[in-house]
Amino acid sequence: MPKAPRTPEEVEQVRQLILDAALEIIVTDGYQGFSMRKLGRSMNMTAKTVYNYFINKDEIYLRLLTKGFELLYAEILSSHKTRSDPWQQLQVMTRTYIEFGTTQPNYYDIMMTWYVPKYNDFIGTDLEPMAAAELKAARKNSLLFIETIDALGRRYGHLDPTTARQDFIELLVGLHGTISLYNNTILSYLHDNPQQMLASLTSSLVARFNPETKTS
Predict the structure, then answer these.
(1) For the residues of 8-74, what is the DSSP string, one character each?
(2) pLDDT tier at 1, thresholds 50, 70, 90
(3) Are 12 and 54 in contact, with CB atoms under 8 Å apart?
(4) Is the dihedral of CA 31, 33, 35, 39 positive or negative?
(5) What count of Cα atoms within 13 Å lies in the side-chain half-sphere of residue 71?
(6) Alpha-carbon span 93 to 79, nearest angstrom
(7) Tens-digit pLDDT profile for residues 115-137
């Protein structure tokens, strides 16, 4: 008897297994070293079988990026909702961002560290709509931070309301640097308790937004 077709749930399970395997390969071999053939071998599949689930390696990569940004957004939004005051919201969001970056280093690397194809690289291609969806998912994270910084400044009057985006970019630079130093173990060479230093750096990065440090 012919093999029964997979149920939608089974198809989605296989797709997720493929994405998980692809992420491991990309992290290990880089985007340029990633191929459908290599992915198939890692899963004891033929490349042809992998193509039954995804158009090509770019689709897999874009779906990984989108998932990473969606996971991050879900976590920072959840932490945001635990507080009503924008100063407290920014603090918990910052800690959540650091925690995501240090506990999900594989996703973080392809999202924020490596030079890999981004939306502009897919303009005019069949994957442009998918790349646009990935860009939208990424921007949601930035916008939540920017809106929180804007609300913080408006409530306490200590921040320039016209610079919320720049304030976020400066915060992001610090967050990214901190995560990178921790993930590549350099922080462990600079401090005998990297976890403690991580917490200290996180607090320092957000301290400039403290409404109790208003400037005249």
Answers:
(1) HHHHHHHHHHHHHHHHHHHHHHTTTT--HHHHHHHTT--HHHHHTT-SSHHHHHHHHHHHHHHHHHH
(2) very low
(3) no
(4) negative
(5) 16
(6) 6
(7) 788 899 999 999 999 999 999 99
DSSP 162-192: GGHHHHHHHHHHHHHHHHHHHHTTHHHHH-S
In CATH terms, the superfamily for domain 64-213 is Tetracycline Repressor, domain 2 (1.10.357.10)
Token reading at 31: 């985007």
Q: Which two tokens stand for residue 144?
A: 């939540």
At CB < 8 A and 24+ separation, what contacts does 208-214 make?
209/87, 209/90, 209/149, 209/152, 209/159, 209/167, 209/171, 210/87, 211/87, 211/152, 211/155, 211/156, 211/158, 213/158, 214/156, 214/157, 214/158
What CATH number was assigned to the domain covering residues 1-54? Answer: 1.10.10.60
* Stretch 23-51: mean pLDDT: 91
